[in-house]
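[Help] Beginner question about ligand-bound structures

Sorry if this is basic. My supervisor gave me a protein sequence and a SMILES string for fe (ii) ion and asked me to "get the holo structure". I don't really know what that means in practice or what format the answer should be in. Inputs are pasted below exactly as I got them.
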Amino acid sequence: MIGDVVGEPGLAILEQKLPGLIAEHNADLALVNGENAAAGFGLNEECLRRILGAGADVVTTGNHVWEKREFWPFLDKEERVLRPANYPQGNPGRGWIRLEKAGVSYLVINLQGREYMTPIDCPFTTFNSIVESQWTGNSDRHPPCSAFGNTPAPDEGNCPALFCRALALVDFHAESTREKEALGYYLDGKVSMMAGTHTHVQTADERVLPKGTGYITDLGMTGISNGVIGMDKTICLDRARNQVLYRMECAAEGTPAVEGVLAELDRDSGRALNLRRIRSFAG
Ligand SMILES: [Fe+2]
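Answer (accepted):
No worries, everyone starts somewhere. Holo just means with the ligand present. The predicted complex, written as structure tokens, is below.
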């Protein structure tokens, strides 16, 4: 899972690095957050094609996905791009996708936080709704299957559980570390991996939670690593000092890097076995 791609420097380093990372680690699935790819704000068709062309299987997003109105039709047309699932009904696009790759079934879910952000629908209950759309049980009680160490049911072959059928991965695009950790524990034992995005600053807290879910509060970002969250630091400094919301621009100079996390998942149990942070510089 790769953190938010920021502007042209982010796209360029992603194209340079992602194919090699996939090959080097024999990665089965690559998820990339692309919400800042179009000059720092949103996505457009060309940016989406470049991210998919670099090797992403699914492109997740966040609050900036709505910046380019001309891109909205692609949220409906291109199923490999997601917008947070907990935006209210009526918005274009989808917030989750099931896909098969190399004999493994995946469920990728994109959610967005509400603390210090737009008060959209609840990410916790939205997750439950998605799970319930996949099976008929109660998402608060893990279904009777052997996934995540649960006792196998006699009819496990027909078990409707999410994890009998798919490895689930969640991109939680959120500002609040408290909300991110809370959702992490809520999802523990329910999904294979939850990674936070949005802050653009990689956290050093990657771990496997007690019930087997891989977790990191923030993947970091893909772009100029010595700007301010990938943006021009002079403009950001002026914003902070003067408290005027000058339009930010992507950092044009500096050292680009790809940041994210590599997760080893057990396809049978659904558990995360091992996580490793990625911070890969140009060259
Ligand atoms: Fe972002």
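A couple of things worth pointing out: The two ends are 21 Å apart (CA to CA). Residues 4, 35-36, 62, 198, 200 surround fe (ii) ion (CB under 6 Å). Feel free to follow up in the thread.
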